[in-house]
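Researcher: We're teaching a course module on how sequence relates to structure. For the next exercise, students receive a sequence and then see the predicted structure as tokens, so they can try to spot secondary structure elements on their own. Here is the exercise chain.
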Amino acid sequence: MAPVKYHRAVLKLSGESLRGGSAYGVDWDALSYAAQEVHEAFSLKVQLAVVVGGGNIWRGEEAEAKGMDRATADYAGMVATTINALALQDALEQRGVPTRVQTAITIQAVAEPYIRLRAIHHLEEGRVVIFAGGTGNPFMTTDTASALRALEIGAEVLLMAKHNVDGVYDSDPHKNAHAKKFHHMSYLQGLNLGLEVMDRTALSLCMDNQLPIKVFDLWVPGAVARLLQGEHLGTLITGEEEIAMLKQREEAS
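Model: And here is the predicted structure for the students to work with:
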């Protein structure tokens, strides 16, 4: 077994990834696959937290477009992320992975409220922590929640799982066969190019605090564990100095 490079990490799972091939809701095969990926990573004895989205159940922007108040629509989306979190928790517990769900909005009957030190304690005790409810604030995405929680718990890396996209491209690879993939890029490059990697608030948070981001395809078997062991998959987003060092190594090799 390869040594572990990152000992504490946050994995962002979109609601779309849990939808899998279904038109709506949770696809049980996709859920099982995601749980297995987390299980494999957990087996490395790393401290792993997961942030889940809710787009497979509810999208606040779409509800707003239909006339719903945006703040109310976003709160409904927070409830949707909690549904996904509970489904993932059950799938992990069935695999013998001790798991806790913490929500940014209080839903006391099914999950703990988010408390930073309690989350860190769970990680240190060998439990996977699933963060639901985004940041608890409307107008904020679960991408921002991922960056925020990663910084709060002192994670060494943010793993951004994508649905059938193996990294960051200069255009949509599903629409443009000649789209160029970035194997690594700086935070500023991502912001300036306006690519749909994650929202600008989340990317800026990572840049300001020098938190590396790995964007990868969830559907590459074992990808989460391989990334935690330091294997290069997808796209690494980091500071300009580290990018320069990586380019020097590539040229030297």
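Model: If you want an answer key for the exercise: The CA atoms of residues 104 and 136 lie 5 Å apart. The mean pLDDT is 94.
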